Amino acid sequence: MTSKTPPATNLTHFDSTGQAHMVDVGGKDDTHRIAVASGCIRMKAETLALIQSGTAKKGDVLGIARIAGIMATKRTSDLIPLCHPLALTRVAVDFSIDEGTSSVTCVAQAETVGKTGVEMEALTAVQIGLLTIYDMCKAVDRGMVITDVRVMEKRGGKSGDWVAD
Fold this sequence. Notes:
This protein is an alpha+beta fold. It contains 4 helices and 5 strands. The mean pLDDT is 89.
């Protein structure tokens, strides 16, 4: 079942006086939580061909980007100031190539059993995976564009399940 959560009227990372704070999740129940995020990097056709051939100067671009995305999920709370550190139970980072648009799409899924969601971890995996592709290919294509990074779905927790339109 998919539910659309109404827009929040108050931002949860600010207290009643407007000061930033880490949200107290101590009273929440532990639940199985899943988040899926995706994003895309567009590039020259020649750059995509280089990635596909596996002959990029720095090595297996998508393999290294996958490991970078997985590593990034484990460091999300070090990068995003008000994120809770989480014990992740699963992280998957996958890439698909679209020759027609000369792009690579990254989809990341993060999971935990805990008191707070894993949307930020999934988003971090996507961003770092795509940034790694940029880093590894920038010598031949500085005009690559990272785009359309977003949460695609989340499951678990008090607010229930949500799927992007």
